[in-house]
Every structure is written in C-alpha cells, then in structure tokens.
Specification:
This protein is mainly alpha-helical. It has a domain of about 170 residues. It is built from twelve helices and no strands. Helix 6 crosses helix 11. The radius of gyration is 30 Å and the shape is extended.
C-alpha cells in the first residue's frame, strides 16, 4: 500500500515539476519576446523585410549567377525605387486632385455658409427668441444661476480649445524633434536588412549546427507556416484593396466625378484600416452632397458604399480563411479578445497570435509539451 502511494506521489510530483518547467519556459519566452519587440524592433522589422525579399535574391543568385551581396543590394534598391516611384505617382495625382479641391473650396465654403445661415435663420433664431422670453420669466436667483452656468460652459470651451491647440503644437514639435531619430532608424533597418539577407545561408547553417535536428525541424515548420500566413494575409488585403479601388473608380468614372483615380486610391487605402473602411470617406461625402443640394450624387454614393460593403463581406471571409487558415468565427473572436486585452493594437495582435498558436499546433509543439509533462503513460 505504501509502495503504491509512493509511486503515485512520485508520479504526480514529476508531472508537477515538468509542468512548472514548461510554464517557466513559456513565461521566459513571452518576457523575452516582449523586450525584444520593445528594444530591438528595428531588427525584427529588418528580419521580416529580409524574409520578404529572400525569394527574389535567391532567384537572382541562382539564375543570373550574381554574388549574394550584389543580388541583395539590387533587390533592395529595386524595391526602394518601386516604393519611391509609387509614392511619387500617387503624390502627383494627389497634388492634382488637391489643386482641384482648393479651386472648388471657396465655392464649397460659400455654399456651406449659405446652408448654415439658412439653418440659423429658420431654426436657431426662433428658438433663441423663445429662450429670451423664457429667461425674462425667471426670478433673479434663477437668472444668476443660468448665467453662471453659461459662463462655466464658456470657460470650459475655451480651456478645451486651448488644450487641443497646445496638444497639436506639442505633437508637431515632437514629430520635428524625432525626425532625425526616424531617419537614423530607417538607415539601421536598411543596413540590418542587407546584412541579414546577405548572410542568410550562414545564419541558417549556424542555427542548424547549434540546434538539435528535432528543434530545428520544429522551428523551421513554425517559421514556414507563419511566413505563409503573413504573405497570404498581405495578398488577401492587397486583393481586397484592388477590388475596392477598381469598383470605386469604375463607379465614380460613370458618375463623372473629377479625379476619380485619386479618390479611389485614397478610399482603398482607408479601407485597409480595421473597423473604419470606405465609410470614413463615402458617408461624410454623401452627407455633404445631400446638404449641398446634390441629392442624386448623395444617393449614388450611398449605393456605392453598400455595394463595397457587400463585396467585402462576400470576399473577405473566404480570402482570409484561405490565406491565413483562420475560420471567420475564430478570426472574429480573436479580434474581440485582442481588443479587450491590448486595446486598438489588439485588433491586429489577436488574429496573428492565434495564427502563431496554430503554427505551433501544426508543428506538434503542444503535443510534445503534453507528452513531456505527463510522460509516456499519459499518452
């Protein structure tokens, strides 16, 4: 009997110690990841960029027999040129569109002022007259209390305006002061990307020699799964933005809206933001069009918005499910839980954390950890 008790005591003590060991590893890994992301994030960004350009560098190295350092430099300069060219093209189109808007701004402002004057004349003045009549029916103490309350509201409004203006100026000053740091950060990211990609095979071979075959295979599988999910997500978002831009440009061109390309491009860019989407551009635009007497344009903009929402709702679940391997319900739950824990950043952190855990599951990390904790008898 004592032997049986001793056996079970030793067994559960072993399970507890192994569980504590695994838990300690998880805590250390989480803390280490946090501090790495907090203090070494330029090199994390450089690693991601190196992963993205690695296939192009490998192609140049394999097919054109380029030295790896030269191929890395060519790909990075080509990517930089493509980015600068795209930004320049968009900037030229945006400047043209903004010039058109500036030319139309006086007319739009005059129209808005006319609408505001009409609203004040027909709605505010009658209410004001009634309030004045009601004010004179009050006794002296009621009048004093009301005037004191109005004075407090005025002080609060002035304080709010002053605080807002001060905060805006402080943020602008912070941006100017941090500009040299931002430039230095970009240089560090560029150089780190170059060296990581240039020495990719050397780093990979070093890790392969230092790690056991099982650990190396597991890390490689997790890395490949997560990389495919990231690339798939980028392809899915790019496809959704392209569809949004194309549909919007076709509709605005049919409506003969000036600078339809600029408007479509900006709206598609806004559509990338979670929980904001095209409504941030189209709904205020439709409201202004309605108030300025352009009811048909307002109606068509509302219809375009509903069309884009319907297209996105039809395409997004399928694209995301196939690209990152997440069920739409699981993605929704991960977004909600991430928002509750991390705030607005959790909208992006939540789904990617689930994708990372799924990659660990595919690599049998959880199964291996469970087998280690309970032993062969607990399988």
């Amino acid at each position: 009997m004592n032997d049986s008790h001793s056996f079970f005591l030793i067994k559960y003590l072993t399970i507890f110690l192994r569980f504590s060991f695994v838990l300690a590893i998880i805590i250390v890994f989480t803390a280490l990841s946090y501090y790495v992301l907090k203090y070494a994030y330029p090199f994390v960004i450089a690693l991601i960029l190196a992963i993205l350009i690695q296939p192009f560098v490998a192609w140049l190295e394999r097919h054109l027999r380029m030295p790896r350092a030269f191929a890395t430099l060519i790909v990075m300069m080509a990517g930089l040129a493509l980015m600068v060219g795209t930004i320049s093209l968009i900037s030229v189109e945006m400047i043209s569109g903004l010039s058109y808007l500036i030319d139309r701004l006086p007319v739009a402002m005059q129209s808005a002022i006319t609408l505001l004057n009409g609203f004040i004349t027909h709605h505010f003045f009658p209410i004001r007259e009634k309030m004045i009549d009601f004010f004179y029916t009050m006794n002296d103490s009621q009048k004093a209390a009301l005037l004191h309350h109005i004075e407090n509201v005025n002080h609060e409004m002035m304080a709010l305006i002053t605080t807002t203006g001060t905060n805006v100026l402080r943020q602008l000053m912070d941006m100017i002061l941090h500009l040299p740091n931002a430039i230095a950060l970009l240089i560090i990211i560029f150089m780190a990307t170059f060296f990581i990609c240039k020495d990719w095979h050397r780093i990979s071979n070093y890790l392969h020699r230092r790690l056991s075959t099982a650990i190396h295979s597991t890390l490689l599988q997790v890395f490949n799964d997560f990389k495919e999910a990231v690339l798939g997500y980028m392809r899915a978002q790019l496809a959704l933005m392209s569809v949004t831009c194309a549909v919007l440009m076709i509709c605005l061109s049919i409506l003969r809206v000036p600078h339809a390309f600029t408007v479509s491009l900006l709206t598609a860019g806004v559509d990338f933001l979670p929980y904001i989407g095209t409504g941030a551009v189209l709904l205020p635009w439709a409201t202004y069009a309605f108030l300025s007497g352009q009811a048909p344009l307002s109606f068509y903009l509302a219809v375009i918005y509903l069309l884009l929402v319907a297209i996105r709702q039809l395409l997004e679940p399928k694209l995301l499910a196939t690209s990152i391997g997440l069920n739409p319900l699981a993605a929704l739950v991960s977004v909600f839980v991430g928002f509750q824990i991390f705030g607005w950043a959790g909208i992006m952190i939540g789904p990617w954390l689930v994708v990372f855990l799924k990659s660990l599951s595919h690599a049998n990390v959880f199964k291996t950890a469970w087998t280690f904790i309970v032993g062969s008898s607990g399988k």
